[in-house]
Amino acid sequence: MTFPCQSSFTTILSMQVLDHPAELRARLTASLSAGARVGFVPTMGALHAGHLALVEASRAQTDLTVMSIYINPAQFAAGEDFSRYPRDFDRDLSLAADAGVDILFKPDDEVMYPSGTDAQQVWVDPGALGDKLEGAHRPGHFRGVATVVAKLFNMVRPEAAFFGQKDAQQSIVIRRLVRDLALPVQIEVVPTVREDDGLALSSRNVYLSPEQRKEAPAIFRGLQAAGQAFDAGERRPRAIVDEVKAELGRGAPSASVEYVALTDYETLDPYPETVDTPALLSLAVRFGSTRLIDNIPLLP
Amino acid sequence: MTFPCQSSFTTILSMQVLDHPAELRARLTASLSAGARVGFVPTMGALHAGHLALVEASRAQTDLTVMSIYINPAQFAAGEDFSRYPRDFDRDLSLAADAGVDILFKPDDEVMYPSGTDAQQVWVDPGALGDKLEGAHRPGHFRGVATVVAKLFNMVRPEAAFFGQKDAQQSIVIRRLVRDLALPVQIEVVPTVREDDGLALSSRNVYLSPEQRKEAPAIFRGLQAAGQAFDAGERRPRAIVDEVKAELGRGAPSASVEYVALTDYETLDPYPETVDTPALLSLAVRFGSTRLIDNIPLLP
Questions:
Q1: Is the model's pLDDT at B5 over the cut of 80?
Q2: What does the CA dihedral A197, A200, A205, A208 come to, rounded to 10 degrees?
Q3: A128/B126 Cβ within 8 A
Q4: B126: chain A residues, CB-CB within 8 Å
């Protein structure tokens, strides 16, 4: 996996960097008047090829791509890695410019939470969807995600927004947000980008020690093994989940498994007996203090 | 109080009636491209002169006024008057057209709650503000209000929206909603329109029996008496509230007082000892099964 790290003054100059919604609005109003379709790629920075695939999808489907970089404190639970989340704006700037982002929106906390996150009164509550899977392990995470995405959508007002399959539950919550709040945004989910050995790209991979990095590909191997069992006709949820756990036990002995779950893709509810709808096979594992997630869809 | 009940075919023809967000969006996009500022007056129909004052304010400040009529089931608590809430669309149509509404948006339940209100997962949660005053007596009311207003804002995308002072807490919740979710809408609050005897106009006034209607002006007399005491220097919350209660006791013996509250205008918190910030004096009373609210601001 290589990154287009080299950048030139010119490509950065062709990308506008804006930090205030009013500037953004003025810039976009001009483009909209000219009939441009706006695509939006929200990120927390620490860009990798997964983010760049979102930009590529946006550029293919829209006329003008806005990327935001904002590390949203409200989606980190207490004790999570907010303070040490990787930050390298200069590198992000160059990657975004080279990828063809037209506008990089980089709001600060004052813009996103004018009263501070503690004084925010009105939240977008994702309901039961936000309490399942990741939400069960990260209290308040999806309330933070849904609220910040609603805010960013209100600032950018894109026609389409692009999210990665790796954060499957996030996309499901956001699709529901868009539907339930009548937001006129099309949500596009882009396949997970992986290293050659199958590890899903994540800004958190940089936390892994060399030994952990060697074990981490067992995550995707486990998902693939389960997917093969499913394709061969296995429909018992427990048996499918056990395929993943067995591979993790073999290939990633130092990982602790937070959950491996097989759920309906829309409701995120588990199956009592048989997988009989489009399903999401998802997991979270910890290597020390580093928490990684991954998933694959299982389509009957 | 007279209504402009007469209407002509012509005036109704000059107002467009739309029931689908896509039609609305197409119509508004054309106007926005021409540089029009869009004003929005959300209503539940049963229009009276209070609503028409909102239209007048919108026409004075914007180029194109959209009124919505939608009786939002999600803002009625169990046992409230959802099923018997007054409905007279033909009359509303003629009043709106005569008042100069440009577009009447009349979505149905299918448009507003495509999954049904029971299956709505994502809600706009107004937090503590929604649990005070009216919220304490109407569980879930402001969650329903905040959610439907967010939806309507997303459909209409107005530059300014107009609300009545009579529903003071509603305006406070919506101002906060707009701020906390970064909605680019200016919220304008228009003074309460009253009958000659002081009764605040309300779609629910039609429920009052002739006897109750005679007593109801004691509500505003009580608020005025308290306002005069405040203007004369009274700052003890209890003494100010008691002025209202005394007048209600004298003038509206058949009413039962649900609450009379003196609170900070922004936080809606009561004062322990002294009114020392801009304040809201608000109340709810019941005449039989009819619940009326009213308020005045008290500004030191």
A1: no
A2: -50
A3: no
A4: 121-122
